[in-house]
Write a structure and sequence with these properties.
The protein has 9 helices and 25 strands. It is α+β, with helices and mostly antiparallel strands and 429 residues long. Strands 13-12-11-14-10-15-16 form a 7-stranded mixed sheet, with helices on both faces. The chain has a 7-stranded mixed sheet with strand order 19-24-23-22-25-20-21. The structure holds adenosine-5'-diphosphate and magnesium ion.
């Protein structure tokens, strides 16, 4: 568990449009931040004066102020510095332009702006989404947040894409938007490249559901949609961006940092789509492959255990009789087109439901299993049905035909289909 913040205390005064950046690197460290005077926000969420905000290991934050503030920092924070140059005014202006579109949507009973955020890895896409959604929510809007980043997504566990209606600003300490039951679709891979046909199918389905939800909720309709993506922008990744733009009927594309991508999209997307270039913040740093893996692991750990020391959850562990459940994976291995049965397209094998027969420890141990809302594999569109949640296989007993699972909910599991994810989690609690 996390230790006390220690004795180190620093007071920092920020001027107009300045930002304090800090990281928490040490193991089991907690850094506390209090705003003593003025106004400040963290990625678009306002800080409340004299209130303690705690950040654990791995946190990388920026406290920004439009009018100046005094901060008190307690504990061992790393890479602490004040930045005078930030793109925040440009992000605020972008929000202003979106708000104008929302107001005219209100007046005409039309749909508010559908906004796509794209750019390479580590340019601040997720942070920009969070900032502009927070600004919208602070004005009473109820935008829908769509996260298509299967690797570093924030809606469910890695390997999913999803959407949620945002009704309150992101939690500063929880590092994002919190919702009990987000709409999640299962890909089962940490990168869309592992199954592009499935990724595209899920995007089309999610777009359809999001459009339906907008039609049934007046406030959500004029508030619009913010779509976050992964940093996959070249070759097939570029094609995937154009597919997303088409499926969601995107009105605005915000391109972070990459002029090449901005030029290509300006040329290739229909002229009614407004493509906007935005600079990245100097505070966003590159993350290594191992850092990304750690971020995925901690996302899964948080799904089951919450935040140790700050907001713990108490997951359940129980046995599941394999004979009572049906486990499937999605997609047979890609086969050369020439070997396919007549009339079948390559994509069809990649989006097919394949039964996992006689599973072994090697197939199941440490894997995530999605609990589908689908009850029957003969049901149409199982792959396009959203999932209720996830369990992790922590033990496997071949002789008894049982597995032990870690689950946010007490057992037994609902009698619906289980979908095998490629993603593994070592439960080291
Ligand atoms: P992307 O989604 O493009 O990969 P993120 O938005 O996740 O990028 O940003 C990468 C990291 O940088 C995150 O840990 C985020 O908290 C941090 N970050 C974003 N903006 C700032 C900033 N202005 N100062 C310091 N850190 C920041
Ligand atoms: Mg991101």
């Amino acid at each position: 568990s996390a230790g006390p913040p220690g004795d180190a205390v620093q007071d920092v005064t920020l001027g107009v449009d300045e930002e304090l950046r800090l990281e928490v690197e040490g193991k089991n460290q907690i850094v506390q931040v209090v705003m003593k005077d003025g106004t400040a926000e963290i990625f678009g969420t306002e800080m409340i004066k004299d209130t303690l905000y705690q950040f654990g290991t791995g946190a990388k934050i920026a406290v920004f102020t439009y009018h100046g503030c005094v901060l008190q920092i307690k504990g061992k924070a790393d890479s602490v510095y004040v930045a005078k140059e930030t793109p925040m005014i440009m992000y605020l202006n972008t929000h202003g332009a979106l708000e104008t579109l929302r107001r005219s949507a209100d007046a005409d009973g039309k749909r508010g702006p559908i906004v796509l955020v794209v750019g390479a890895q580590d340019v601040g896409k997720t942070t920009l989404c969070r900032i502009i959604i927070n600004y919208a929510v602070r004005l009473g809007r109820r935008p829908i947040y769509v996260d298509l980043d299967v690797g570093q997504g924030s809606i469910s566990v890695p390997g999913t894409i999803g959407a949620m209606l945002i009704e309150r600003p992101a939690s500063i300490e929880d590092n994002g938007f919190v919702q009990q039951a987000p709409l999640a679709y299962f890909l089962g891979h940490k990168s869309p490249q592992n199954n592009i046909p499935l990724y595209n199918t899920l995007i089309s389905k999610l777009a359809e559901v999001v459009h339906e939800r907008m039609e049934s909720n007046r406030k959500a309709k004029s508030s619009g949609v913010i779509i976050n993506t992964c940093g996959w922008v070249k070759a097939d990744g570029y094609k995937s961006i154009t597919h997303i733009a088409q499926a969601f009927e995107v009105d605005v594309v915000l391109v972070l940092d990459q002029e090449r991508l901005y030029n290509d999209l300006s040329r290739d997307l229909p002229s009614f789509v407004k493509v906007v270039f935005l600079p990245k913040s100097g505070g966003v740093g590159d993350r290594s492959v191992s850092h990304r893996q750690e971020a995925r692991d901690s996302r899964i750990r948080e799904y089951f255990y919450g935040k140790p020391g700050l907001q713990p959850f108490h997951p359940h562990s129980f046995q599941v009789k394999l004979s009572e459940y049906k486990i499937f994976k999605i997609g047979a291995p890609a086969i050369p087109l020439s070997c396919l049965p007549l009339g079948m397209k390559g994509d069809e094998t990649r989006t097919k439901l394949v039964a996992v027969v006689n599973p072994t420890a090697a197939t199941l141990l440490h894997r995530l299993l999605a609990i589908s809302f689908a009850t029957d594999e003969t049901q149409q569109d199982v792959i396009q049905t959203n999932v209720a949640g996830f369990v992790c296989v922590t033990d496997f007993d071949q002789d008894k035909g049982k597995m032990t699972v870690l689950s946010p909910q007490p057992g037994p599991l609902p009698k619906t289909l289980l979908l095998l994810s490629e993603i593994q989690f070592m439960d080291a609690q």
